[in-house]
């Protein structure tokens, strides 16, 4: 596998996702970190985004609800390198009807090597990192050879 050096920009595009049992925690977390979050571009799945926007006043680009395809929309944006960070408060104790979509979303974040937080403590660590408002150098997988062989 080849890698290429790229930078995650100082102004990041952050995707916000929360399962039903974690939506209140996500809104509270966003209120706590509003000053930092408002310096970045935010996208969120349907209900989560609407709650964040109404409860915090943060500008959030809404996508579809997770089970309706919102998780997949975020996954596509990650694959297209339009998302720099994923904050996903998932509920590990509740069954999710769209669990394959959730796993696919986390897999894409790992494939493209973007920062991911799946709970408040990890999200706090990311937002308080010295890289939060600076460029973050990282190795990104270079799939150009693979893509070239697929398009023949």
Automatic annotation (TrEMBL):
The active site is at residue 71. Its EC number is 4.2.3.3. SUPFAM superfamilies: Methylglyoxal synthase-like. The keyword Lyase applies. Residues 6-152 form the MGS-like domain. SMART domains: MGS. Catalyzes the formation of methylglyoxal from dihydroxyacetone phosphate. Keywords: Lyase. It catalyses: dihydroxyacetone phosphate = methylglyoxal + phosphate. GO terms for molecular function: methylglyoxal synthase activity. GO terms for cellular component: cytosol. Belongs to the methylglyoxal synthase family. Substrate binds at residues 19, 23, 45-48, 65-66, 98. Signal peptide: none annotated. This is Methylglyoxal synthase. One of its GO terms (biological process) is methylglyoxal biosynthetic process. It holds the Pfam family MGS.
């Amino acid at each position: 596998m080849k890698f290429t050096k790229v930078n995650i920009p100082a102004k990041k595009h952050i995707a916000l996702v929360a399962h039903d049992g974690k939506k209140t925690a996500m809104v509270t977390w966003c209120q706590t970190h509003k000053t930092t979050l408002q310096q970045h571009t935010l996208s969120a799945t349907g209900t989560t985004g609407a709650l964040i926007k109404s409860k915090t006043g943060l500008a959030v680009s809404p996508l579809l609800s997770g089970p309706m395809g919102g998780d997949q929309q975020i996954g596509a944006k990650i694959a297209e390198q339009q998302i720099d960070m994923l904050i996903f408060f998932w509920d590990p104790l509740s069954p999710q009807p769209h669990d394959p979509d959730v796993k696919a979303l986390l897999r894409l974040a790992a494939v493209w090597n973007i920062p991911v937080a799946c709970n408040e403590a990890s999200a706090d660590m990311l937002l308080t990192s010295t890289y939060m408002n600076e460029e973050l150098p990282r190795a990104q997988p270079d799939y150009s050879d693979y893509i070239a062989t697929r398009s023949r």
